[in-house]
Design a protein that fits this description.
16 helices; 0% strand; 349 residues; 72% helix
Length: 349
């Protein structure tokens, strides 16, 4: 009798409504309202902040523990609210959304699921690391590899706020460049991951029973809190270590901030941008600062495409839902997109 009462206490429709309400309130507080105000700053000053890579300096700081800590602190201040929201929503997917509903909407292979994943991502506007916990929750609920990759990469690459900032700060030509090549990147990388990734990989975070069969005597908040802690414990430690590592070694990844055009620098910036981690829209002030130091359009195009798309920490965060093979396919697709973007930018701008 008690189990039946608990089952009636939260229907699938009610769970979906709660998840939607939390998502709307969370995104409004963390993303929509701050970005609305920031858009006016970009419009009036053509500037949204200093480069997180080098600040006001003409070069990244030398490799050191201080460089690691300074970057980790600056990066954490920029993303902690969004990361917390990502963990809340990522754990909430398992507790509140019926697996069969998620699977029905996003679980099929092919263009439809990929396109839906991308459309769902556009209002979220999260950076690649903050989107990773939600991507993990989606995959655990049997969303397809292609739809999860599409949702994950569309968040930072097709972020409408970033595109507006980019238009005001770098010029609307660069914003259009990002839209066109960003759509191609999302669809291309999702296709590669679905076609050449490991389609039968295990989702090792999914250890328990589905929400309908969990300990129904536990309250909703108890189950949600348990999933939140499990997700945070599994994802955050290696993530923090890698942020420190990248912060310490940014002088190695970006040895010349004013790189001129040329295939060598395009490839180098495509690889560095794929590995490095930045907050949402962080590529805009980075590229603006590099332009001031004489960087060419080719390396700039490579960075504009790769810096936001993925990062070494976000790839590590998804190691339990994507196999190494799938993640290498994603990295290859992003680097290739960055190189193509750099070559196109070198001829267009």
């Amino acid at each position: 009798m008690q189990a039946r009462m608990n089952e009636k206490r939260l229907s699938p429709f009610a769970g979906t409504m709660i998840f939607t309400l939390v998502a709307i309130v969370g995104f409004a507080y963390v993303k929509w309202m701050p970005y609305y105000a920031k858009a006016f700053l970009a419009q009036s000053h053509h500037f949204i902040g200093d480069s997180i890579l080098s600040g006001n300096s003409v070069s990244a700081p030398p490799v050191s523990w201080n460089a690691a800590v300074d970057y980790a602190i600056a990066y954490s201040k920029a993303i902690w609210k969004a990361l917390l929201l990502g963990l809340i929503l990522g754990s909430g997917i398992k507790v509140l959304l019926p697996t069969q509903w998620v699977s029905a909407a996003l679980g099929r292979l092919g263009f439809k699921s990929v396109a839906l994943g991308s459309l769902f991502a556009i209002p979220c506007m999260m950076c690649t690391c903050c989107a990773a916990p939600v991507a993990a929750g989606m995959r655990q609920s049997r969303a397809s590899v292609g739809s999860v990759v599409s949702w994950w990469i569309s968040n930072p690459v097709l972020n409408p706020a970033t595109l507006i900032f980019m238009g005001f700060v770098l010029g609307w030509g660069w914003a259009l460049f990002r839209v066109v090549l960003g759509i191609a990147m999302v669809l291309g990388v999702a296709y590669l991951a679905e076609r050449y990734g490991d389609q039968h990989e295990a989702v090792s975070l999914e250890q328990g029973l589905p929400p309908e069969a969990e300990a129904l005597n536990d309250s909703l908040l108890t189950r949600w809190g348990r999933e939140f802690m499990a997700l945070a414990i599994k994802l955050l430690p290696e993530y923090l270590i890698l942020v420190l590592l990248l912060g310490a070694t940014r002088a190695w990844l970006f040895p010349v901030l004013g790189a001129h055009d040329g295939i060598f620098w395009i490839v180098a910036m495509a690889v560095a941008g794929t590995l490095f981690v930045i907050p949402t829209a962080g590529e805009v002030p980075i590229v603006q600062a590099m332009f001031a130091l004489g960087m060419g359009a080719g390396p700039a195009g490579a960075l504009i495409m790769t810096l936001p798309a993925v990062s070494l920490p976000s790839l590590a965060m998804l190691s339990r839902i994507f196999s190494l093979r799938t993640r290498l396919v994603i990295v290859f697709g992003v680097v290739l997109s960055g190189i193509a973007g750099g070559l196109i930018a070198m001829t267009v701008f």
